[in-house]
Amino acid sequence: MSPVLLFDFDSTLIQDEGLDILFQRSLRDAPDREERVRAFQELTDQGMAGELRFEDSLARRLEHLVAHRSLVEEVGAELASRLSPSVERNRGFFRERAERHGIHVLSGGFRELIEPAATTLGIPPSRIHAHRFRYAADGAVLGLDPETPLARGGKPLAVEEMGLDPAKTWMVGDGATDLEVRELGLVSTFVAFAENRTRSSVTSRADQVVHSMEELLELLSNHS
User: Fold this and answer.
1) What are the pLDDT digits (tens) for 156-185?
2) Going by C-beta distance under 8 Å and a sequence separation of 6 or more, which residues neighbour residue 47?
3) What CATH number corresponds to the domain at position 205?
4) Which domain holds residue 51?
């Protein structure tokens, strides 16, 4: 029996880090845009590599973000066109597996940025496990919603609340938080997805490393 697959989103299903793109777009024509974007991306990389607690990385990035719901929606639509090349080539796999409830998105990113891309792959909102933004009455982004499992306990709590059998579940992603799910015994296998980013602190401890969806499909075929 094929395992349930938990896919990370940023730098896995899509080529980019969604929050980084949102921050870039929020700056528009700011004169110090490039410098601020580099500093923001450095915080992202530190969190994803495990050099900085992901929660701390996210909190520090959100302190610098000034955005509106309309921009969040605009960037979400943009990210739907930025699927990783091998994910784009294998849309059929996602749609087929999604129909059989075999795929979830598990992300430290934000649902509003994820849902348009997930929809194009046939993954319903009920199987997206991510943060949500908190908004002011005028639509300004205030930060993250503290009530989601991701906000309360990160990816481990989100996986626990899914109620999946660890022996029949794989995690596929590029970051330290994806590796953590495996090291806590919440999934049987962690596959480091290195098509877009290769983080040696993550790949060196992964059960498997793949550089494309085709390589992942081969692993799944051998597993079956």
Assistant:
1) 999 999 999 999 999 999 999 999 999 999
2) 53, 54, 56, 57, 58, 108, 175, 176
3) 3.40.50.1000
4) 4-223
